[in-house]
Fold this sequence. Notes:
The chain is an all-beta fold. It is 0% helix and 53% strand.
Amino acid sequence: QVQLVESGGGQVQAGGSLRLSCAAAGRAFNIYAMGWFRQAPGKEREFVARISRNWTDYADSVKGRFTISRDNVKNMLYLQMNSLKPEDTAVYYCAPSSGTSWLEGFGSWGQGTQVTVSS
């Protein structure tokens, strides 16, 4: 299993930027494709971006604005978010991914990090 701690969220105005970080511990981090997911109030958790060894993938809503990256030496996952919009407001989580969903049985969700974008 993998233990995950997200950080880097905050409150910004529309058009601003944030960089989220995810520290992973536990089973070999670099064997997993990793993803970022988010959950807005009253909505289901949704896919944002994912990264494997050789490719990245993004939800249409963030494509061109967000960049996912990872450091397998430090066991870290990142999400650079630019041109933020109010609709990006959500709690952001990282997790091992399976397709555009999270990997079943990966362990427990971290506490997430809140991103709030004001107009």
